[in-house]
Amino acid sequence: METTNFKIVSANSQIDWTGRKVTGAHNGTIGIKEGYFILNDGKINSGKIIIDTTSIKILDVTDSATNAQFAGHLASDDFFSIEKFPTAKLDILTVKEISNNTYHLEGNLTIKDITHLVGFEAQVKNDGNKIVLTGKLVIDRTKYDIKFRSGNFFVDLGDTLIYNDFDLDFTITAEAIFSAQSKN
């Protein structure tokens, strides 16, 4: 069995987030600090992705003062508590091939030191020395103690309600760092 380790290239990877509320949505980006994937015989076996929560950006709010206020709120304890938790992580535990180049990944997602099992589909392009994963992960923020304006915890929010699920659309590029033969 050939095992190949791939290191995530943060500069060539992107996560776009979308959060929805009754009156619309907000969107932005969040960076990947580092990570890796381990492939056995050309197929993903496991991996780890470290997300830099301090890098969260809001793209749809163009007024600089409003954007800064919103960014400060996302950084606060109402949302990601980035001073206490500057990173989040996803540890990929299982990978099942659904069809050619499409996989179902499951792993432990940790946000604010709270961990839950998540599953999602990803398309994987593998050219031997580089892999690119694309897909979407939908997260229920309330499982990670992000309860601000959630209908699960507050009543009579009206049009200030923020929906619990948020989307992470990702494109992650990783490059091979070495290859070794194993005798399993």
Automatic annotation (TrEMBL):
Q: Where is the signal peptide, in residue numbers? A: none
Classify the source by domain of life: Bacteria
Q: What is this protein called?
A: YceI family protein
Among the Pfam families in the record, one is YceI
Q: Which SMART domains match?
A: YceI (SM00867)
Give start and end of each Lipid/polyisoprenoid-binding YceI-like domain.
5-175
